[in-house]
Design brief:
The protein is an alpha/beta fold. It has helices at about 30-35, 50-65, 85-95; strands spanning about 20-25, 40-45, 75-80, 100-105, 110-115.
Length: about 130
C-alpha cells in the first residue's frame, strides 16, 4: 500500500451515549435535589467554563460516565453564571468550594465529594 493509496484502515467506532446532564440554574432546585436524594443518589458537577483544567476533567468525566438518569440524577452547575447557587451548594451541603468539583448527595446530605483529578465517573457506581 502506497503513501497515497485509497485504501484505509477502518477504525472501530465507539458509541458514546449522551451524559444525562440536568442544568442547575435556580436556588429552588436545591430543595428539589435534597428531596430527590431521598429516593435516588444525586450528583452535582461544578464547572468553571473559563478553566482549562475544569474543561479537561469534565471531558474525562463525560467519556467515562456510564449511568443513566434513573440510577443517579446528575446536575451541571456553571460556576460563572450561577456563582450564588454555587455558594449555596457549599453552605447547604457543608462542602468547601472547589472547581471543578463533584458532590454526591444521598438522603439530603453530601456523602462524598472530589475535586480536580480526583473526580472519577466510575466511582459513582458505588453510591447506587
Amino acid at each position: 500500500m502506497g503513501l497515497f493509496s485509497k485504501s484505509k484502515k477502518v477504525k472501530e467506532e465507539k458509541v458514546i451515549e449522551q451524559v444525562p446532564w440536568n442544568v442547575l440554574s435556580s436556588m429552588d432546585q436545591l430543595e428539589e435535589i435534597k428531596e430527590q436524594s431521598k429516593s435516588q443518589p444525586v450528583a452535582i458537577f461544578k464547572h468553571s467554563t473559563r478553566c482549562g483544567i475544569s474543561r479537561m476533567v469534565m471531558r474525562q468525566f463525560e467519556s467515562n460516565y456510564s449511568l443513566n438518569d434513573t440510577q443517579l440524577k446528575l446536575y451541571y452547575l456553571d460556576l460563572l453564571n450561577y456563582r450564588s447557587i454555587s455558594d449555596e451548594v457549599g453552605y447547604a451541603f457543608q462542602v468547601m468550594h472547589q472547581s471543578p468539583q463533584l458532590i454526591v448527595i444521598k438522603n439530603g446530605t453530601a456523602v462524598a465529594h472530589a475535586s480536580h483529578h480526583g473526580i472519577q465517573a466510575n466511582e459513582l457506581e458505588k453510591f447506587i
